[in-house]
Design a protein that fits this description.
Rossmann fold, 2 domains, globular, Dihydrodipicolinate Reductase, domain 2
């Protein structure tokens, strides 16, 4: 009988390792945080005494106790490290972008099957509070037949990132590959594969080698059109979600608090974890039979990345299908890799 906890290694203790992974893995109920790669400053043991801090990825992958490896290294290393981890006999959880293209993504999924190991993609934004409310509105058909949806991830960062892999013209760089996978995954999880897609990606910051503004337009057989925007140059962010149907409209600002809470040291088991503050409610506007408008404000559901890790555990220990499907990731890659439209 296999042991309960999954012995886990994390390939980096940068922001994502420190914020999005270690706090969940170290909870002891499903996982055991066994080791982290720290090439330079050794910081992880200050928060997690007793873990092993390896100097290199190869050292961690050679640790026979580790069952699951979290690949949270720079974008352009994902495929290489994920391949090495699978060949070392580990299950893998890989951050976005999973790969720079659908061909490399398919190779990883096929290698996982060959090795008898699970290949999972860390699409945590499915468990954001604001997105969960949007999904409830859609699932309950509040707006009737859907016509148009706008999904945005707006930031303002004129300066170039110190993370050179995001700013250098290499596969997987630029704002579309940084934020686009989050938004595409949300849309695909709701509506599936689009009939057609159009990609626009442009650069506006002085000296930028990569896109800092991007738009994807997706069309569906039902008649729904989805507009996805990711930008580094929006000074006054618009609502993250705007949805129009034949019965009315819905809009919601981006207000998930999990990242900020985790940065502040709040643990995933804290009672306040994942709960949006007042004043960020979603707005539903319905047109009544007499033509009057009815406006309803709806609180978001609790955001909870614990559910992603619950799904990882269920896949590995109980054989339950991971909610982020292989075909969904391949569709995502095919949309991202298509040539940009330039007029």
């Amino acid at each position: 009988m296999p042991k309960k906890n999954i012995t886990t290694g994390i390939l980096s203790y940068g922001m994502s390792g420190r914020v999005f992974h270690a706090p969940f893995i170290q909870q002891k109920s499903r996982f055991e945080l066994h080791a982290i790669v720290e090439r330079h400053e050794k910081r992880a043991h200050k928060r997690y005494p007793g873990i092993i801090s390896y100097d290199s990825v190869d050292e961690l992958l050679n640790d026979e106790k580790i069952e699951l490896v979290i690949v949270n290294t720079p974008n352009d290393t994902h495929v290489d490290y994920a391949t090495k981890a699978l060949k070392a006999g580990k299950h893998i959880l890989v951050e976005k972008p999973f790969a720079p293209n659908s061909k490399d993504a398919k190779k990883l999924f096929d290698l996982g099957k060959k090795m008898g190991k699970h290949v999972m993609v860390f699409q945590n934004r499915r468990w954001d509070s604001d997105f969960k409310l949007l999904k409830r509105v859609i699932d309950r058909e509040v707006l009737g037949e859907l016509i148009e949806m706008h999904v945005r991830f707006d930031r303002y960062r004129m300066e170039r990132s110190h993370k050179t892999f995001k700013e250098t013209k290499i596969p997987g760089s630029g704002v579309l590959y940084d934020l686009g996978p989050h938004l595409l995954d949300q849309v695909i999880s709701l509506f599936g594969k689009p009939q057609k897609s159009l990609k626009i990606a442009t650069a506006h910051r002085p000296g930028s080698e990569v896109d800092d503004f991007s738009t994807l337009i997706l069309t569906y057989e039902s008649g729904l059109t989805v507009f996805i925007y990711a930008s580094l140059l929006v000074a006054n962010p618009l609502p993250a979600y705007v949805l129009h149907g034949i019965k009315g409209s819905f809009q919601k600002v981006r207000a998930d608090v999990q990242e900020d809470q985790l940065q502040a040291g709040i643990l995933p088991k804290d009672p306040e974890y994942g709960i949006e503050p007042p004043g960020k409610e979603g707005l539903i506007t319905l047109i009544k039979a007499n033509g009057d408008r009815e406006m309803r404000y709806r609180e978001a559901l609790k955001g909870d990345y614990n559910d992603l890790f619950n799904a990882v555990y269920a896949q590995i220990r109980r054989g339950e299908s991971f909610p982020v499907k292989e075909e969904e990731i391949l569709w995502q890659m095919e949309i991202l890799e298509q040539p940009a439209w330039n007029g």
